[in-house]
């Protein structure tokens, strides 16, 4: 019977739900991509270790836990790998056990071969610095052999006992087959093993009683994880369906993951449903090899600078409103304005990430770690900025711009072609609307204060609107010279608007008072020229931000040029022209 | 790891604080304490030299806001000196230049 209240705690022995005489000792480190969780089972006939991980200190802990358990009853140790990735497998040969204790290791055939061949790709050792040692300990238990034997395969133990590995596929209701193997742990309890590829061809899930260990399958659609060597879209979708089918049965109550805390089967089903929807779009994911990861790492740095710039200005605008409300002795309203956005949390997230990115340059942090951290940060910020009250706070497009940047980053890490999902527009139209918006921004209604004077709340709202920092573009003297031809550019209208707004606001921030904008169509490209008499120092603007814009335009076959000669400053954007949109 | 150092220079009727390093959520307290102490003093102008501040996050903006509010109570304005262009841009776009004096 499913019991959603079952909790699995780290670092203590506790009964495995659904069976009488098996206990589990979970080791759940702070979530990281260097070393996985480890789960130790104590059964009558064996101690089972699932995923020793890749951390020496964790290995010492596992060895201590096993040694203590062996004082109660000497039993063989069976080590299983949910898959052969380095963060799960590296320490599989390093456990220190009392003399005479026998150890047998089990993994899927593809994983066993990868480790035996010291394959840096399937083990993803290439993600880590300094060529980490791939586990080359013997694996006697080869799971899901490509040429299955006729009867149960058996491993002989020194004391004459045998561990029999039974193969018993499950016919699912939809006609598919779930490959299953199992062995006895004593007292009639079974350890069941299911082949659940997708994250890796050697991925397996393990079940004891009501507890299912899924390894990294639940993360396999995540940006920065999908596309790793051995990842397979079709296999992943099938495995998700199969695991979901398993979870529909009332026998499974808890799911344990390769990283992070255990969750209820119900929560896992909800996660898998969302994951299946997400994974269904991942049909054309590029291989996440070392070169791709290096490129993503640079993108992460640029994203950090762009997001920090946008959100710092946004926070500053809230502070400015609060300052003027305080001057008017509206301290409560000032406090409320600041409380609408968790500025300190956002700042803490960005500052922490900045330090990680800086530490990367001086220490041995794998690039992949920085990319995954970037994904985590992007998701956290998107969640904070998605709150309804934040969306309604101010209409400066800053939050929306930051949101789109974060989304684009996640899409790129996912390997998705985000830039082609938005409708291209004519550059002339985008610019005309941008200029119109800049002039209209924050135009207060002339009678708004008078009309709200009898209602304290409405009065404060009207007052706050009046105190909003005017758009920095509002006082710029623009001169727009549109090209007479069609200026259909190969870029989504919203992204082009974001890019132009960022550049124009940056120019305003550097002191430009008058900006000329001109478009023309030349050599199959739409060219947009933003010129001011104020010099533009790329370092002052934010060199990485400019690199980011150039990279984004480059993906579309365009470019960004920054000139600061002749005493003035100029940006020239070039985008491939489209005949029609 | 980069830290923030703040030193005080007492001139005849002005306190000048010189900050060196990034001002973010981790380091802002190191600026807040001496800057607010100077701003909450009964008299004297307060200037903050940002020539060697490489980065100013919203936590830094908050410290500037608090100092500006404290100084406003006695009719003074906070003055920032030698502000790097990138930080001027942020202060301008955020509207801070309407209540803080800034010079590059």
Can you offer a commentary on this structure?
The complex is a heterodimer of chains A (581) and B (104). By secondary structure, chain A is of the alpha+beta class. Chain A has three domains: 14-145 and 162-280, Metallo-beta-lactamase, Chain A (4-Layer Sandwich), CATH 3.60.15; 289-416, no CATH class; 421-433 and 471-581, Histidine kinase-like ATPase, C-terminal domain (Heat Shock Protein 90), CATH 3.30.565. In chain A, strand 23 (559-563) and strand 24 (569-576) form a beta hairpin. The longest helix of chain A has 38 residues, at 290-327. The relative contact order of chain A is 0.08. Chain B is an alpha/beta fold and 104 residues long. Chain B has one domain: 2-Layer Sandwich (Transcription Regulator spoIIAA), CATH 3.30.750. Chain B has a five-stranded mixed β-sheet, covered by helices on one side. The model of chain B has no long low-confidence stretch (mean pLDDT 93).
Characteristic key phrases:
heterodimer; A: 581 residues; alpha+beta; Metallo-beta-lactamase, Chain A; Heat Shock Protein 90; 3 domains; seven-stranded mixed beta sheet; 17 helices; 24 strands; 40% helix; B: 104 residues; alpha/beta; Transcription Regulator spoIIAA; five-stranded mixed beta sheet; 3 helices; globular
Shape summary of chain B: globular
CA-based shape of chain A: elongated
- N/C terminus separation of chain A: 58 Å
Number of domains of chain A: 3
CATH first level of the largest domain in chain A: Alpha Beta
Strand order of the largest sheet of chain A: 8-9-12-13-14-15-16-17
Quaternary status: heterodimer
Radius of gyration of chain A: 29 Å
Biggest sheet details of chain A? 8 strands, mixed
Question: Using DSSP, what is the number of strands of chain B?
Answer: 5
Share of helix among residues of chain A?
25-40%
Strand portion of chain B, in percent?
Answer: 25-35%
Number of helices of chain B: 3
């Amino acid at each position: 019977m499913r019991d959603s209240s079952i909790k699995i705690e780290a670092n203590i022995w506790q009964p495995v739900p659904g069976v009488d005489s098996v206990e589990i000792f979970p080791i759940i480190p702070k979530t990281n991509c260097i070393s996985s969780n480890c789960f130790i089972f104590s059964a009558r006939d064996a101690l089972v270790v699932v995923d020793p991980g890749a951390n020496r200190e964790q290995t010492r802990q596992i060895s201590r836990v096993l040694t203590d358990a062996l004082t109660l009853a000497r039993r063989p140790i069976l080590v299983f790998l949910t898959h052969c990735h380095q963060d799960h497998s590296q320490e599989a040969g390093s456990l220190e056990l009392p003399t005479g204790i026998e150890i047998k290791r089990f993994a899927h055939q593809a994983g066993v071969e990868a480790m035996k061949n010291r394959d840096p790709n399937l083990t993803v050792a290439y993600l880590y610095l300094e060529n980490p040692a791939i586990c080359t300990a013997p694996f006697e238990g080869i799971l899901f052999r490509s040429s299955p034997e006729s009867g149960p395969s058996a491993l002989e133990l020194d004391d004459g006992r045998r561990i029999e590995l039974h193969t018993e596929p499950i016919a699912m209701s939809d006609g598919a087959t779930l490959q299953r193997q199992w062995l006895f742990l004593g007292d009639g309890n079974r350890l069941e093993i299911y082949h659940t590829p997708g994250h890796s061809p050697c991925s397996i899930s393990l079940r004891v009683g009501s507890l299912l260990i899924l390894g990294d399958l639940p993360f396999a659609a995540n940006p920065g994880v999908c596309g790793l060597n051995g990842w397979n879209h079709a296999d992943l979708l099938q495995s998700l369906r199969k695991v979901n089918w398993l979870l529909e049965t009332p026998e499974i109550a808890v799911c344990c993951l390769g990283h992070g805390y255990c969750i209820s089967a119900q929560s896992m089903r909800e996660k898998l449903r969302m994951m299946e929807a997400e994974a269904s779009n991942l049909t054309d994911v590029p291989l996440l090899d070392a070169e791709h990861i290096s490129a993503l790492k640079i993108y992460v740095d640029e994203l950090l600078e762009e997001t920090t710039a946008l959100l710092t200005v946004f926070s500053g605008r809230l502070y400015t409103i609060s300052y003027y409300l305080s001057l008017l002795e509206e301290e409560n309203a000032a406090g409320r304005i600041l409380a609408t956005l968790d500025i300190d949390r956002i700042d803490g997230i960005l500052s922490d990430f900045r330090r990680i990115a800086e530490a990367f340059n001086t220490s041995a942090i794998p690039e992949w770690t920085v990319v995954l951290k970037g994904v985590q940060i992007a998701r956290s910020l998107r969640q904070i900025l998605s709150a309804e009250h934040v969306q309604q706070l101010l209409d400066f497009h800053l939050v929306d711009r930051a949101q789109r940047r974060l989304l684009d980053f996640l899409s790129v890490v996912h390997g998705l072609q985000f830039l082609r999902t938005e409708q291209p527009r004519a550059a002339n139209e985008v610019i005309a609307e941008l200029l119109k918006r800049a002039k209209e921004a924050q135009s207060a209604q002339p009678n708004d204060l008078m009309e709200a004077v009898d209602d304290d709340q409405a009065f404060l709202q009207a007052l706050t609107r009046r105190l909003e920092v005017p758009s920095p573009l509002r006082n710029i003297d623009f001169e727009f010279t549109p090209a007479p031809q069609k200026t259909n550019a190969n870029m989504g209208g919203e992204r082009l608007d974001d890019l132009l707004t960022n550049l124009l606001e940056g120019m305003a921030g550097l002191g430009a008072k008058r900006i000329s904008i001109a478009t023309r169509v030349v050599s199959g490209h739409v060219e947009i020229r933003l010129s001011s008499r104020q010099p533009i120092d790329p370092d002052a603007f934010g060199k990485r931000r400019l690199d980011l814009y150039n990279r984004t335009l480059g993906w579309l076959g365009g470019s960004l040029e920054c000139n600061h000669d002749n005493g003035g400053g100029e940006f020239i954007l070039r985008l491939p022209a489209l005949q029609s949109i | 790891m980069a830290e923030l150092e703040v030193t005080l220079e007492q001139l005849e009727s002005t306190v000048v604080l010189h900050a060196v390093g990034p001002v973010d959520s981790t380091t802002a307290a190191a600026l807040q304490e001496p800057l607010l102490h100077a701003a909450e003093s009964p008299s004297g102008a307060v200037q903050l030299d940002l020539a060697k501040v490489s980065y100013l996050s919203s936590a830094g903006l908050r410290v500037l806001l608090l100092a500006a509010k404290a100084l406003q109570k006695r009719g003074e304005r906070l003055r920032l000196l030698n502000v790097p262009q990138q930080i001027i841009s942020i202060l301008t776009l955020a509207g801070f230049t309407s209540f803080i004096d800034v010079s590059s």
